[in-house]
Structures are given as C-alpha cells and as structure tokens.
Amino acid sequence: MNKKQRAFTPTPKKRRRIGQKSTFNRMLVRVFRIVVTVFLLLVAWIVYIQWKVQIAPDQTLPKQVDVGIVLGASLRQDIPSPGLQERLDLAVDLYKEGRFKQLIVSGGLDHNGSKLTEAEGMRNYLVKKGLPAKSILLEPRATSTYENLLYSKQIMDEQGLVSSIIMTHQFHGSRSLDIAETIGLKQPLISSTKSEVLFMPYHEARETLAYTKWYWTKLLLIAGI
C-alpha cells in the first residue's frame, strides 16, 4: 500500500465514527418519519371530527314521541345562558307543535356561583315560556353530555318512556346521537338549532376535543372497563 492509499484508508477509530454518524442519521430519518406520520394522522383525525361536527344528523321527526330531552349548558346568575336559551326555545317550539307532552331537562350544578342546577334554571325558563311545570322532569346530576343522556335514560326507564327527541345545538348533534345510541336509547332522534349567539370557532374546536374524549370513553365502555 502506497502513501496515497494509506491516506484515504480510514483507521479503525475513524470507521467507528463513520458508523456512529451513519446510525445517528438513520435514527434521525426514522424519528422524522414518525413525527410526520403522527402529524398527518392528527390532521386527518381533526378533519374527520370537524366533518362530523359540521354535519348535523338529518332526521325526520315523528308527530309525537314520549319525551323530549334538553341537554344542559351553563347558567348565568341562575338564568340560562343565551346559548342554553336557544336550546330551550327549540324545546318550546316542539312542545307547542305537539311533538311531546313531557320534557326532561338535564344538567347539574355549575361551578360558577350558580345556586340552582342547570335543570332547575331550565325548568324555570320553560315555565315562564308557558309550559306547565308538571310536564317537566328534572335531571339535576349530569356534568357531561354522556351523563345528560345516561341519567335521562334512567328517568325514562323509571317513567316507562321509550321514544325521545334530544334537543341541542347543531355542532353538538352528532356526538349526542352517538352517545344516545351507545347507552341504549331506542331509535333516538336529534333536533338541533343553529346558534346565533355562540362564538362558533371556539365551540367547534372544543367539540373536537370533546368528541375525541367520547371516543376514548366509548372504547372503554365496549371493553367493559
């Protein structure tokens, strides 16, 4: 081996450095691919959920069902917030159309200084709108949509009520229907209203997180955990 060949022949130490550098580069490529894959999956998931959020269930309501269920939202100084009033106004309209003779209003105590539960505030609002108090059943424990529907179903079972119309906002309709079907409500129906008072970018983004949490809960329920 001449001097020129020896100059270009790596020593064992250099070979180890080259090998380490090559291994490190391969690891970087793998990490990059994993990060890109996770990012693309996350984007795809968000797009899918937002599609679900934007497409409200399109269901034809029957002339009459056993009960209407109004899903709760926050009170402000014991009065339904403007968003909740939209749901309640929808309930008033359907009640006056004769779609149901009984209502379940569902919602527990807010942690915002309210002294009434959401259910109590909703009942008071509906009575002021002309609905008879005896037609309104209270579900005052729920703190989530899942609990809204689960506890409302318990009341339905106790009262011998089977068919129902669930009232909420459009962005909330798909998840509500999925939950209702999962807990065993018989052929649940959704009647939804488009909001004129809520800041929709916030609520739609929040619904993405809530929908993701629900899917995880649903998997645990299916697994029996």
Automatic annotation (TrEMBL):
InterPro entries: Cell_Envelope_Assoc, DUF218, Rossmann-like_a/b/a_fold
Annotated transmembrane regions: 31-51
Superkingdom per UniProt: Bacteria
Domain DUF218: 66-198
Keywords: Membrane, Transmembrane, Transmembrane helix
Protein name: YdcF family protein
Source organism per UniProt: Paenibacillus germinis
